[in-house]
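Subject: Sanity check before I submit

Could someone independently write out the structure tokens for this chain? I want to compare against mine line by line before I put it in a report. The sequence has 134 residues.
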Amino acid sequence: MLPAAGAVIFDEAHELEDIASNFFGINLSTQRFDELARDVETMLRARHASTAAIESATATLRERARLFFAALPFDASRTAADTIATLDAPPNSSPYAGLGRMPFDDRAEFLESSGDTYTGALNALSLSRASSTA
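---
Independent answer below. Compare away.
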């Protein structure tokens, strides 16, 4: 990506981690899952290939994405005005713009303190999936 060099100087190096994360990483949000479900439905309807099972699967995808993102830690210091202001921000301007969610910096601590909630949700989803395929 960068040409061979004896030294590299980064202007604004304090932003390097965020820039690299945005460039090489993937941002996931409820909106991204909604867009995926909508695109799948639109494409299959246009090809007259949509089925009730696919419509059900996309509805399930949307609902589970909402449940997942709702369980992430919330930054109470962000005001409603902050969240509304970021809704008009350009895509990828912030990994959590408009979501009112905080960066997931303390994953290990959060999962340690809330792991039972995730295990319970995972078990419920597994039971739901098993009952829908039976």
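---
OP: Matches mine. For the report I'm noting this point. The CA atoms of residues 77 and 100 lie 9 Å apart.
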